[in-house]
């Protein structure tokens, strides 16, 4: 029970800090301000997080777990791309899309926040690995599963970038990101398709 309470506290504080970053448009809020906003003491804040940038980790982790859960609900017969698209739309959802669209430019523009996000993104690949293996009908430890998990994760990253940079709605952003994987950038020396 204590673990569930702590997890809920961490997520609540994380969401509060992310909202403060979005309101300011940067990470200039002090830890004292973030703690006050989250209705905790600075001491409690430091017990939860080493830095204010690390405070977004629980929210990112929750998003990753939501994506993995949504991916587990997808049927194999429609393929991995459709499963990733549906899972992304379900996990970002209409209620999280405005926060995602507002927070991602701040993450991309702040080196410390970006490091936290990149670490969480790497964990996404591991979280979705079992479901990707199921969806592509390969062993979880296979190179195909590793590559497919990486592609699925990068499609999510590309969609988030599209949402942040171009203000593209989540369904269109993930569709465009997945479409980019059909281009053989690595298969040709110039990155352009051969005629």
* Rg from alpha-carbon coordinates: 18 Å
Total DSSP E strands = 0
Distance between the termini: 62 Å
Tally the helices: what do you get? 8
Globular, elongated, flat, extended or rod-shaped: what is the shape?
Answer: globular
Structural class, from secondary structure content? mainly alpha
Which spans have pLDDT < 50 for at least 5 consecutive residues? none
Q: How would you characterize the largest beta sheet?
A: none
Task: Detail the topology: elements first, then pairings.
Layout: H1 2-24, H2 31-38, H3 42-48, H4 57-72, H5 80-109, H6 111-136, H7 143-166, H8 170-180
Helix pairs in contact: 1-2, 1-4, 1-5, 4-5, 4-6, 5-6, 5-7, 5-8, 6-7, 7-8
Summarize the structure.
This protein has helices spanning 2-24, 31-38, 42-48, 57-72, 80-109, 111-136, 143-166, 170-180. With 195 residues, the protein is an all-alpha fold.
Describe the protein.
The protein contains eight helices and no strands. It is mostly helical and 195 residues long. Helix 1 crosses helix 4 (57-72), helix 4 runs parallel beside helix 6 (111-136) and helix 5 packs across helix 8. The longest helix has 30 residues, at 80-109. The chain is globular, with a radius of gyration of 18 Å.
